[in-house]
TrEMBL record:
Coiled coil: none annotated. Pfam families: Amidohydro_3. CDD domains: Bact_CD. Residues 54-397 form the Amidohydrolase domain. PANTHER family: BLL3847 PROTEIN, CYTOSINE DEAMINASE. It comes from Planococcus faecalis. This is Deaminase. InterPro entries: Amidohydro_3, Metal-dep_hydrolase_composite, Metal_Hydrolase, Metallo-hydrolase_Enzymes. It comes from the Bacteria.
Length: 408
């Protein structure tokens, strides 16, 4: 592992204020010594006779990003253009399509997954949580392709793989397949809509938690059910989490109902999730009520971002660019001031931000792992609002973006 000095880095050091009002972000140019993948020192002066050095040219340094909800195993990305077919039976339209589509995609599944990993790295991600179909149609073949793809990038990213019974854990009789997936590389137990897909909330949740206990694994559930049905599912999920002593190991993906609930029902639901330390991942959808990210965060619940579908049979959209997604979040909720824009970064980094809420430097610190990005911006707020370009990506101190083959 190469040791070197990262020169002329722009770091945030505090907020500019006019009385109590934050008007901007102060930065400074410093030099970071990188040793064995970690930050060894931060200095305003460079030692003489440097042998190994990298000039950041005053670019802004930010922590690298985490893609927390993606499906790299089934995608049209890097292949021919194909729009989606109309939905006539809701989610079940797509499930019927998959019975024919997934076997056809399998010969190129690994290559397309690797192309998507390349794209995510270029967009600043050094951690990926991917959901991988496990069902009677494709068995464990998508999982095998996904694991091969991820293993080829073990020196560039960390990752989690969710064993995802897309067609319903109970509905498609995939219980034993999910168990096998957990023995063959999957790290989290998945599920989808215990009510509308599996048609049995209690038995579905009980089975998910049984499998998780068998493999000492966490859980990540797709929950799309709206309104009070979604709220009831959240409540039961919270109960199961506490009964299993799995606080802090359960994720709700999407959580669509959180965008529908209001008043005391929302407050009560958030209290349940906080008490069970269940976190939430969202794609910031704009085709339906967006979940109230700020309220969820203020309730003490961790929120993270993901892209879900990128150019597949579910959606023709998606860029894999999380900085742009943060900008969409800012526009959706009218976060236009310096402080609000600055605080959004934590949803993309696992909570890591250069400045804490008081404006004191929280990152980087000596001893931190040097997984980071260089961005063409003067500060975090500008990077998000102006959808700044990423100039370099580092994983444990080593630059990885420029080592990737360029996509055509």
């Amino acid at each position: 592992m190469k040791n070197y000095w990262l020169m002329n880095v722009r770091l945030e050091k505090g907020f500019k204020r006019d009385g109590n009002r934050i008007t901007g972000t102060e930065t400074e140019i410093v030099h970071l010594e990188i040793e064995e993948g970690k930050i060894k020192s931060i200095s305003k002066e460079l030692p003489n006779n440097l042998v190994e050095k990298y000039d950041a040219e005053h670019q802004l340094l930010l922590p690298s990003l985490r893609e927390m909800h993606i499906h790299i195993d089934k995608t049209f990305y890097s292949g021919p253009w194909k729009a989606c077919t109309p939905i006539t039976k809701g989610i079940f339209t797509r499930l019927e399509e998959e019975k024919e589509l997934l076997p056809k995609l399998l010969p190129t599944a690994q290559q397309r997954a690797e192309n998507m990993i390349d794209m995510l790295i270029r967009n600043g991600h050094t951690h990926i949580r991917t959901h991988c179909n496990v069902d009677p149609v494709i068995g464990l073949k998508n999982l095998e392709a996904t694991m091969r793809a991820l293993e080829n990038y073990k020196d560039a990213i960390t990752y989690d793989v969710v064993a995802f019974p897309q067609h319903g854990l109970l509905r498609s009789d995939s219980v034993e397949l999910v168990r096998e997936a957990m023995k063959n590389g999957a790290t989290l137990v998945g599920g989808v809509d215990p009510a509308t897909v599996d048609r049995h909330i209690e038995r579905s949740l009980s089975t998910v938690f049984d499998i998780a206990a068998e493999h000492n694994a966490g859980i990540d559930l797709h929950l799309h059910d709206p309104d009070t049905l979604g709220a009831f599912t959240f409540s039961r999920l919270a109960d199961y989490t506490k009964q299993a002593n799995m606080q802090g190991r359960v994720t709700i993906s999407h959580g669509i109902a959180l965008g529908d609930l209001e008043g005391d029902v929302l407050t009560s639901t958030l209290a349940d999730l906080r008490e069970s330390r269940i976190d939430v991942t969202t794609t910031i959808p704009i085709n339906r009520p967006t979940i109230p990210v700020a309220k969820i965060d203020q309730a003490g619940i961790e929120v993270s971002l993901g892209h879900d579908s990128i150019t597949d049979h579910w959606s023709p959209f998606g860029t894999g660019n999380t900085i742009r997604k943060l900008a969409t979040l800012a526009e959706r909720f009218k976060y236009i001031d310096e402080y609000s824009l600055n605080r959004l970064l934590k949803y993309a980094t696992g909570g890591i931000t250069p400045l804490n809420e008081q404006g004191e430097r929280a990152w980087p610190q000596i001893g931190d792992t040097a997984s980071m990005i260089l961005v063409n911006a003067s500060c975090t707020a500008e990077a998000i609002a102006r959808r700044a370009d990423i100039k370099a990506v580092f994983f444990k101190g080593q630059e990885i973006k420029n080592k990737l083959p360029q996509m055509q």
